[in-house]
Amino acid sequence: MKFRSPLRGPWLTSVLGVVLLAALPLVIVTGLLDYVAYGPGQSIPGDVGLLHLPAFDWPTRPSWLFRLTQGLHVGLGLVLVPVVLAKLWSVIPRLFVWPPAKSIGHALERATLLMLVGGILFEIVTGLMNIQYDYAFGFSFYTAHYIGAWVFLAGFVTHAVLKLPIARRALRTRSLRAELRVPTSAPEPVDDELVATDPAPPTMSRRGALALVGGGALFVATITAGQTLGGPLRDLAVLLPRGRDDFPINRTAVAAAIEPAATGAAWRLALGERTFSRADLLRLPQHTARLPIACVEGWSTVQDWTGVRLRDLAALAGVASPGSASVESLDEGPFGRATLSAGQVLDPDALLALRVNGVDLSPDHGFPARVVVPALPGVHCTKWVRSITFRAV
Questions:
Q1: pLDDT (tens digit, 9 = 90+) per residue, 186-206?
Q2: Nearest-CA neighbor of 324 among 305, 343, 306?
Q3: Which residues neighbour 205 within 8 Å (Cβ) at sequence distance 6 or greater?
Q4: Are 135 and 40 in contact (CB under 8 A)?
Q5: How many Cβ atoms are within 10 Å of 96's Cβ, its own excluded?
Q6: Residue 95 has pLDDT above 90, yes or no
Q7: Do the beta carbons of residue 378 and residue 37 sit within 8 Å?
Q8: Rounded-to-integer distance, Cα 104 and Cα 110, Å
């Protein structure tokens, strides 16, 4: 198979590689932080052996912490897709080199390349499908995406160590500023397998190629950033699977099989040995806080929540110094339970919310009551709460 583009060469590949080298660690780190954010014993997947990260109590401040980490992980990951595709295009001749391994060292390098390319394509495809709620792959997204991330990370670190000296030499052969000034680009010297020995006539300069990749990344940012940032940008987020409403709904009451009778006048909140009706809760001191809810798919929303502080409920339950709290929902699904740490229970803005933006919660937003805690992953801001069990330190 012949590849004749006059643009391919070590310099262009190295420029794209440096961009990924600078940005991908941020995607990796924020993804691993999001795994930790679910809390000890609640990270998904749970049984990952030596790949399990050290557990610690996720902080509640700043209140937008999880919104930041998850937004960066998903948003930056999407923005880098055009750069990744361009980088793969730039090195595709190497994938067809024969023989595939010329020595043991070369074979090891090819193995890291397989982990790198296969890992990042797997992460992109499964991540995009998760955002769109498309689980056609038939396996656990959480488990596969997490293990795939470690495979990619191993390939990424090894490949970077092997290729960084080569990239530095390649970048010294041309000036980026000079390359951006010329309308056409001559082929690089034929001293690398990426450079075509019989190049086709140029139809685009390297300046144009970089502009195309940069424009693609900017376009992706424009149509996706609104799901995290909100405001006017949300109207441009045309690919949002939940629409462009400023207050998205991830799981409806119907999807969770919440019966209207269960949330009606007979509903009671179990608080240890005590029970409270919604009217009882409304008679307790109310607190309002403006807090974000952020979801693993990358979207977030900021609303004004009103309800009873969790620390006040702990006191009513007779637990003056709570060490944790177990929250249970009427939702019998996999995310119908959550455990909160002491810091999350005691935060002054941690609420059992009864109202949002001055009105009662709607059924889809968790009526009659839901948990809202600063910086907590959205899936643990439990809706349709039926009980809270506080445990002393």
A1: 788 877 778 888 888 888 889
A2: 343
A3: 7, 182, 183, 184, 185
A4: no
A5: 11
A6: no
A7: no
A8: 10
Give the global pTM.
0.91
Query: Residues 6 or more apart from 176 whose CB is under 8 A from it?
Result: 15
Question: 49-53, 255-259, 337-341 — which is least confidently predicted?
Answer: 49-53
Please tell me the predicted confidence (pLDDT) of residue 1.
Answer: 66
> Would you give the distance in Å from CA 126 to the centre of its chain?
12
Given a cut of 90, whether residue 218 has pLDDT beyond it is yes
3-class DSSP assignment, residue 191? coil
- CA 50, CA 30: separation in Å to the nearest integer? 20
- Name which of 25-34, 44-53, 67-76, 164-173 the model is least confident about: 44-53
Q: For residues 298 and 250, what is the distance between their CA atoms, to the nearest angstrom?
A: 11
Structure tokens at 153: 């990370």
pLDDT at 185 over 80: no
260-392: CATH class? alpha beta
Q: Give the pair of three-digit tokens for residue 36.
A: 């930790």
How do the domains of the chain map onto residue ranges? Answer: 10-236, 260-392
Residue linked to tokens 């090819």:
110
| Alpha carbon distance, N-terminus to C-terminus of the chain | 67
Say if CB 350 and CB 373 are below 8 A apart.
Answer: yes
Instruction: Give residues with Cβ within 8 angstroms of 226, minimum separation 6.
Output: 232, 233, 234, 235, 236, 237, 240, 244
Contact partners, residue 46, CB within 8 Å, separation at least 6: none
Give me the residues paired with residue 290 across strands.
304
